[in-house]
């Protein structure tokens, strides 16, 4: 995946851009046992041990179900809090970790089972040493 | 059936802050105490299994302090299971027949390290974008999963902290020795809901050491009076699970290690008189009640609510105060848990003594993941 030096880069290996520059998720699935991975460069399956020839690339669903989430109120120095750290099972796999936004900060607002969607956005304005911008994934409630 | 293997000397330093001492000095203090209890010298030790996550070559550094005998030293880095891994290695090395007297040391100096968590390598910081990699968030997410499955509440998690902190008031080696009533635990600063500050273990400096010996050597040296038999010694990594390692699974490896340890020891969960388990966060203690088969599936909540795991209850858990009170110097924790069990099996635990304790279990689990379970019995 080549990007122009001045265009945003994917923040994680499971995010890619299509020809039109639109971000999407990419993942791998084991055709032998069904395991899914938020990865694109695996050479074997961690579940059944199948080799690269049984792994296929696929584009995961952008909707999923919140499996677990916590409200982070003290983070590493320099990191703005509060925010919601979430584990989401995308429909059809894989499981993805990320930040859940556009929700209240009451435990009832982040109860497991909440239906969520994946949105792509700038990575909180963070830039690398060369000044490049990054695109990250965020979870948002489906109803929002 | 090969012969039994024993711990004949085991000790831990008081966990706390030692800014002006080196990891080697802390390890040396624990090692000498263990050697003295075993009534041997460093010259009798045939090899060393040592571990630290933040200091390289810790075994060599310790022997530079207490005696450079030139023996084989193997250093281990196995997250929170490091200390227990050293004992496990000693157990298998003696079982293999090459050695009969081994020293195990776990050391960690953590003052000033701050909150732990995986710093993701990459171009930009990912904390706050990729959720949180702090340990309170990671274990909080595991706790919320448990809540959804069992109906446990934040109050149930808080009660674990109340219990373990109460136990620690009877343990002079613990770092935090004060009563923390339920209100105090719940009203403490929230780190990552549902975990408040008093539901998280503290980074401290610490060291613990053990002398492991073959049965023949124990008899030859006349040490059976203090010997603790290692009846079960088992470790496991995380078996494949759909969310691991995106969401680290501390349950699966603990269950695997426990099953293997019970089978090796040929005992049932009901035979266990007390347990020192890995309460790095209050929530996970309830998960481990079930993982270690101290109760049935979903019954961990009942165990804390009915007082079964308090001192005096059916199966006391973490009467040392646990990691929540002792503090958690990563590589020292595994051997420190065994030290607590040894005290009880010998009837030397003072006012927190579990009466008539005959068989005890220790457990640690480090993210990544590695779990260790040992079943110990008074010889
Ligand atoms: Zn597979």
Report the portion of residues of chain A in β strands.
Answer: 35-45%
| Chain-averaged pLDDT of chain B | 96
Give the percentage of residues in beta strands of chain B. Answer: 15-25%
| Terminal Cα span of chain A | 32 Å
Tell me which ligands are bound. zinc ion
Shape of chain B: globular
Query: Number of helical runs of chain A?
Result: 0
Q: Can you tell me the CATH superfamily of chain B?
A: Thiolase/Chalcone synthase
In helices, the fraction of residues of chain B equals: 25-40%
Q: Mean pLDDT of chain A, rounded to whole units?
A: 94
- Please describe the biggest sheet of chain B, giving its number of strands, its sense, and whether it closes into a barrel: 9 strands, mixed
SSE string of chain B: EHEHEHEHHHEEEHEHEHHHHEE
Top-tier CATH class of the largest domain in chain A = Mainly Beta
**Percentage of residues assigned to helices of chain A:** under 10%
CATH architectural group of the largest domain in chain A: Beta Barrel
CATH class of chain B: Alpha Beta
SSE inventory with pairings:
The complex is a heterodimer of chains A (144) and B (379).
Chain A: E1 9-10, E2 15-17, E3 23-25, E4 27-30, E5 36-37, E6 55-58, E7 63-72, E8 83-90, E9 95-100, E10 115-127, E11 133-141
Parallel strand pairs in A: 1-11, 9-11
Antiparallel strand pairs in A: 2-3, 4-5, 4-6, 7-8, 7-10, 8-9, 10-11
Chain B: E1 5-12, H1 23-37, E2 47-51, H2 58-66, E3 72-76, H3 82-95, E4 101-108, H4 135-150, H5 154-168, H6 182-187, E5 190-193, E6 195-196, E7 206-214, H7 215-221, E8 228-237, H8 251-265, E9 274-276, H9 282-291, H10 300-305, H11 322-326, H12 330-345, E10 359-366, E11 370-378
Parallel strand pairs in B: 2-3, 2-4, 9-10
Antiparallel strand pairs in B: 1-7, 1-8, 4-7, 5-6, 8-11, 10-11
């Amino acid at each position: 995946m080549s990007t122009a030096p001045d265009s945003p880069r994917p923040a994680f290996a499971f995010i890619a851009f299509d020809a039109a520059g639109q971000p999407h998720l990419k993942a791998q699935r084991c055709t032998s046992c069904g395991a899914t991975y938020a990865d694109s460069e695996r050479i074997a399956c961690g579940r059944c041990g199948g080799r690269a020839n049984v792994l296929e690339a696929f584009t995961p669903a952008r909707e999923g179900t919140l499996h677990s989430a916590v409200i982070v109120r003290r983070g590493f120095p320099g990191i703005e809090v509060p925010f919601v750290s979430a584990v989401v099972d995308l429909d059809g796999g894989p499981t993805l970790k990320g930040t859940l936004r556009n929700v209240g900060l009451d435990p009832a607002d982040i109860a497991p089972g909440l239906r969520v969607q994946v949105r792509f956005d700038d990575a909180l304005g963070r830039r690398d040493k060369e000044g490049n911008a990054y695109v990250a994934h965020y979870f948002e409630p489906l109803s929002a | 059936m090969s012969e039994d293997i024993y711990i004949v000397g085991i000790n831990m330093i008081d966990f706390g802050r030692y800014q002006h001492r080196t990891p080697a000095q802390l390890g040396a203090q624990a090692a000498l105490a263990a050697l003295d209890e075993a009534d041997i010298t460093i010259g009798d030790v045939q090899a060393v299994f040592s571990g630290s996550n933040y200091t390289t070559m810790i075994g060599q550094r310790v022997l530079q302090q207490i005696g450079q005998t030139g023996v084989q030293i193997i250093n281990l880095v196995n997250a929170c299971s490091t200390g227990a891994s050293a004992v496990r290695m000693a157990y298998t090395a003696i079982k293999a027949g090459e050695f009969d007297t081994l020293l195990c040391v776990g050391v960690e100096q953590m003052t000033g390290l701050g909150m732990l968590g995986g710093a993701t390598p990459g171009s930009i910081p990912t904390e706050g974008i990729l959720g949180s990699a702090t340990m309170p968030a990671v274990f909080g997410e595991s706790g919320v999963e448990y809540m959804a499955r069992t109906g446990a509440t934040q109050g149930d998690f808080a009660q674990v902290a109340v219990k373990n902190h109460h136990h620690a008031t009877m343990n002079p080696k613990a770092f935090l020795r004060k009563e923390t009533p339920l209100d105090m635990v719940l009203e403490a600063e929230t780190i990552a809901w549902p975990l408040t500050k008093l539901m998280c273990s503290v980074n401290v400096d610490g060291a613990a050491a053990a002398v492991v010996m073959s049965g023949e050597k124990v008899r030859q040296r006349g040490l059976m009076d203090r010997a603790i038999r290692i009846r079960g010694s088992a470790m496991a990594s995380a078996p494949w699970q759909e969310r691991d390692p995106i969401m680290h699974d501390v349950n699966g490896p603990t269950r695997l290690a426990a099953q293997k340890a019970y089978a090796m020891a040929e005992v049932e969960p009901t035979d266990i008189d007390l347990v020192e388990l890995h309460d790095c966060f209050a929530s996970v203690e309830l998960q481990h009640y079930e993982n270690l088969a101290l109760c049935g599936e979903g019954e961990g909540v009942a165990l804390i609510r009915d007082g079964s795991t308090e001192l005096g209850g059916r199966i006391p858990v973490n009467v040392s105060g646990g990691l929540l009170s002792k503090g958690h110097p990563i590589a020292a924790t595994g051997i420190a848990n065994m030290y607590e069990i040894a005290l009880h099996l010998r009837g030397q635990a003072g006012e927190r003594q579990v009466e008539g304790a005959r068989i005890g279990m220790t457990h640690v689990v480090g993210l990544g993941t590695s779990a260790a379970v040992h079943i110990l019995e008074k010889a």
